[in-house]
Every structure is written in structure tokens, then in C-alpha cells.
Prior knowledge:
Blueprint: E1 2-5, E2 8-11, E3 17-21, H1 28-34, H2 39-45, E4 59-63, E5 74-78, H3 85-91, H4 96-101, E6 116-120, E7 130-133, H5 140-146, H6 151-157, E8 171-174, E9 186-190, H7 197-203, H8 208-214, E10 229-233
Antiparallel strand pairs: 1-2, 3-4, 5-6, 7-8, 9-10
Helix pairs in contact: 7-8
Amino acid sequence: MIYRQNQNEVQCPNRFTMPYVVRPGDxxxxxxxxxxxxxxxxxxxxxxxxxxxxxxxxxxxxxxVPERPSCINGAYYIIREGESFYTLALRYDLPLxxxxxxxxxxxxxxxxxxxxxCIPNVPPGCPxxxxxxxxxxxxxxxxxxxxxxxxxxxxxxxxEFNFNIIVPGTELCIPxxxxxxxxxxxxxxxxxxxxxxxxxxxxxxxxxxQLLIANPALRPANFLIxxxxxxIPGSATNTNA
Length: 241
């Protein structure tokens, strides 16, 4: 793709990238954040770009913003941390090629958290979670705490629900927990009070990086939350048992 701006020509490397014109107040970091990448990734797409040459009106290449795919006889699904087409195909018992064909504009090697994709051939209603009925006296905070959800997650799964008026007997769709099961050669450990990324790693003869790689859906702060399930690679010696 060729884009011209102020007589400058930018040729972006592939169909998963697009040109972007620098606006007033933009910085490399703000542009990288806006398009779901980091400074290193942005510089890789623009190898001639120098840190001090960013000026208003110039054009550069950024990751393409995915468009919402058509989803006839299917349901939209919002990508969460650690998820891929492969894990979703396993979870919903779909051939991987069918899932890829339903999302032709998505980059299978670079799914973004929050990106919408189409899961084909799923029933309507609450296809990716479970339905619960609100009991008498239930508050919004009770729902969020009980099911470990953010308000955005609950709203996305129940777009017509009025969160300001909690009516007993109302049915809610509870989205699935963002949790990836441990592989066969790993064991599960549940975070206890006083644990952290560093202490769990040391106790299992791992580096923090190795532990994070084994748990791609977890952030470092998750290792501080009591009850978080952590996968310990099989080669580690678990001294927590």
C-alpha cells in the first residue's frame, strides 16, 4: 500500500499494517499505545524513523486496526489476554481453518486484547458463558466480585441490562473466565497471601520471565492476588507443595 502526505511516500510492509499521519501532540509512545504495539514494534515497522524526527504531518506505518468481521450464524467474541485462534478453536471445538476463514482480516499472529472476532456456528443468547439469575438483595458489586469480572466484561455480555437498577429474577450472561488450563507437563499452584511473582519463581527454581512465559494470560500483578491459579512448568522443582 502506498500513501502520500506532504510529498512524502510511505510503503507499509504488508496488509496487516497501514499508514498514519502524525497529529499535534503525538509521540512515538502515544502512537504505539493507540495501535496496540510498543516502541520497538513501531520502530521495526519504520526502520528509517529516528527518535527525534517525528513531526506533525509526516506519515509512518502502524498496525492495521481490525474491522469487525461479518458474523452470520455466529457470535462476536472479544479477545482476552493470552488467547489465540488455536486456543479458541480448541475451546469451542472448531476446526482451526473454519475459525480463520470467518476472520479473514484478522492477523492470526497478532490478535489484540479487546479485538472482536467471529466465532462461527454457535447458538444465540449466551454462547460463551453461563446464564445466572439475580437473587433478591444482589448488588452490582456482588455480581462483579462473585464472578471475578470487570464492569466492562459484564456490560459487553449484557448490552441491554440496566446496571443502575438491579431487578431480582433478571437473567445475566456471565462470560467465561480468562483462564488457560495448565499443560500436561505443568502443575497448578494457587497464589496465597504473601506471594508475588518473584517469590513463586524462586520457590520453584524459575526466573520471573520463565514463570510469565508459562502463564501468558497473567500479568505480574496477578501473582499478588490470592486465589490466582498459576502454572508451574514441569521441569521446575515445586517446593510449595
